[in-house]
Structures are given as structure tokens and as C-alpha cells.
Amino acid sequence: MKKLLITSLCLFGLAACDRNSDNFQPAAEIVPAPAPVMQEYQIEITNLTLAQPLSPIALITHDDRYRAFSIGDVASTGLEVLAEGGSNVDFLAEVDLEAGVFSTMSAAGPTFPGNTEVLNLSIEGDDVAGMMLSIVSMLINTNDAITAVQSLSIENLQPGEMMSVMSISYDSGTEANTEALGTIPGPVDGGEGFNVLRDDLEDQIRGHSGVVTVDDGMPNSILGEMHRWDNPVARITITRTL
Ligand SMILES: [Ca+2]
Ligand SMILES: [Ca+2]
Predict the structure, then answer these.
(1) Centre of ligand 1 from the C-alpha of residue 175, in Å
(2) Where does the chain show beta strands of DSSP type E?
């Protein structure tokens, strides 16, 4: 009996050993996820005008499927709100829904003449192929003038390198340039800003012809010669810092 019992235990033991061997799993090795590769950029926007504060800068990263606008376009409602009143909230909400848009950002406040707004952009991922920047802002002592940089490629910018471009002005075409009291949201007037109907005649985005002002014979203009500008409106410097 003893012998049989020993054999039986031995068989059981072998079986148990085999089973344990089959199921043996080494403790899972915990491999930390690789840290994301980051590209970092500093974007400086300098207001070159004498007396045209720029509304909070709207910054968009995207690829070639997106374009903020083209000459001859009818401005979207969001762009009309930005161009007449200076708020970029509706514009960026529209942009966020567009194909090819990676990110949107707004400056916290206006950029006053001579001042420089600094925005910092971090892009997560190991590839910036096709990456572009667009920037839109209103000249707020106007009826509906904007300045913009469109589809600026940053894909070849290496760490430590910088590039600089100038932005010109556009008429959003959503309001006649009456320069009249009550129609301009900037500090020269404190007027209404956005109005979907007011003097909405042209409905076509064009290069801006500039302002006339009371100093150059437009009697009802609340603007003076200080509010004129010659292009460019802003200098945009992009430095890749990482
Ligand atoms: Ca206009
Ligand atoms: Ca309008």
C-alpha cells in the first residue's frame, strides 16, 4: 500500500509539475511608455501700426486641407464677427470643425501698437510634415479690417531656427468703411462692433484700401491720420525652441 501510495503521489507530482511548467509565465516586464516627442515654437506678433490695436490673435495649426479664407470669398459668420467686433470665439469654434485643423489658440487680450504678443505652441508627435500656421486678427479702430498670415509652412524649421514674415491687411467685405460714429468697436469709438446687417453690401474679402479719416476730407469719419496704416500691419517671428 505504501509503495502504491508513493507511486501515486509521484505520478500526481509529475502531473502537477508538468501543468505548472506549461502555465509558467514570467512576471510581465513593465516597460514605461516612451515619452512623447515634442516640438515647441515661440510665435511673436508685433503690432507695427501707430494707432490700430489688434484684437486677440487667433492662431491655427493645420495642413493644406484648411485655409482661413481666400481673396474673393464671402466671409463666414465667425470671420464677420471677428472682423467687425474683434472677438475670435465664433471664428475659432468654426475652425475647430474644419478638416485639416490640428489646434487653435487665442491670445488673452489685444496687442497694442508697438507691442509684441508671445504665444507658445507645443506639438506632440514625431512628425511635423505638412504643418502650417495661420493667424487672424482685427484692426479694431476700423469697420472690418483684419490682418492675417495664411498657411505658413513650418515643417522645415529646425530646433534653434527662426523665420519672420509680415502680415498685410484685408477688408472682410462685411461692412462698408463708413468710419462713422457708433460703427467701430475700438477705443476711438467704442461703437457696436459686429452687426450682421449694418452696411453689409460687398460680401467679398479683398485687400484693404486703408482708411480715409477726417484729416483727409471724410467729414463724418471719427478716425484721424494717426489711424492710417501702410502695409505691413504686423511682423510675425516664429522660433522653434525644441
Ligand atoms: Ca469693409
Ligand atoms: Ca456686417
Answers:
(1) 4
(2) 38-47, 58-62, 101-106, 116-124, 132-138, 145-153, 162-171, 206-207, 234-240
